[in-house]
């Protein structure tokens, strides 16, 4: 069962990636007025533009152009920046490290805050604490990242001077942007953990565990939490797209030298290959995250049927 | 359930009642903008700047202060509400329309058409919505309508998936099978049985979707690929003043609060509406 499931899931991920490449191709070469002219720059002669067009294969029929683009992608060639005259792939790989660092901290905080607040709300179900936490989760998901980032910067960095005003390098630099991402993203997790925990709490085996004399805390952490946490895993896969959107904004407000800031700088200069390159890399990351989540879930919870779809 | 009953039930929760009042207020202010705005939103007032040319903090003449060009912030916020609501309604309307069309077709026809349509939503889900919207907006050179279109193009996906599973669930219920055996045509089943049952779900998502749309528009405008100045939008007011936000904090605080409160209100009302219209979901995230 399991090997077939893994193979099918892998095949599907490859299919989605093909689709991703097709959409990025449309964005890069079909929609802009003339990609060759954009690449050549304003002062280029007609001859240069024609050369670049031939180089990019823009004079070939549509399906050949796409095939050409796909072959380049597989070899790691994401095209060239309009402005910076460098390979998009080089720009992206120089930014990957800082982004991964911020992502790891951000998702860590998101889970820590989301799961613990969700647990607390479920235990204190229908009390003032529960209502307060659930209202708070709504405020989190209704706040755009740019406003929260600027508010936190103003409050904690400018006025209280607890954190640096942005930048990169030390641990203190990562803390405020990661907390911003974590606080805003935790809302959906806390709501989900709350409802899945309430569901588990109502089941018979929990009553059995309590009645055989286990302490509340032991029941909570040994029996309730492991069961209630399972839906969180696929949620990380789904959430990662929203998280990356937040990353673009948080990185640009905090001056974090990652992929998000690269995208933001590209937006200011209308450097479409770089924007599309970052979009493409994010899509690959999302597909891989979902693949991992789908493969992890049956390992964590063997009761789940694999062939539902 | 009649409309007044739904509203009355919704208002049992204090937070939802406050949200509804807030939404009605924002809509009325936006519609009545020319009469309620104390100043011309695009007028650069000579006495709207300090002697050094810095924006004024909130005062008697300019209730919420002025921006970098000496324009009245309150009036810009009031006209900005128009922008947010127009985009909210247009973008969300298109997204709901596409999402419902795709979801119902996929769930009702199934077979190859259904599979392809749903795989298409999987493909869209692989992209981060914000980045895809940025790429589209950057390529298409934004106007207010393009921004609405771009937002619709990334937001229909969620709706399609929800409507799809709902359509499948309703189609498999007995009364549809009974209708079929009684000889009802496909179109009749579609319009007099399926769509009325989908209506609550569509209403819930239309409400929640406005919140998503308002947030996405604000973020796109903040990044400079949304609504372009001088047309005021809550996002581009912050975009224009972001470099000054440590010295002129009201320029971020007030539009920021406006965005959060409006998005929060639509989220709270949408969530309460879901509990109200679909009791089976009560208490779930």
UniProtKB/TrEMBL annotation, chain B:
GO biological process: transmembrane transport
SUPFAM superfamilies in the record: MetI-like
Record-linked Pfam families: BPD_transp_1, OppC_N
Transmembrane stretches, start-end: 16-37, 85-108, 202-227, 247-269
Localization: Cell membrane
Keywords: Cell membrane, Membrane, Transmembrane, Transmembrane helix, Transport
Domain ABC transmembrane type-1: 81-270
Entry membrane topology: Multi-pass membrane protein
GO CC terms: plasma membrane
InterPro entries for this protein: BP-dependent_transpt_permease, MetI-like, MetI-like_sf, OppC_N
Source taxon at top rank: Bacteria
Record flagged with keyword Membrane: yes
Family: Belongs to the binding-protein-dependent transport system permease family.
Protein name: Peptide ABC transporter permease
Lineage of the species this protein comes from: Bacteria, Pseudomonadati, Pseudomonadota, Gammaproteobacteria, Pseudomonadales
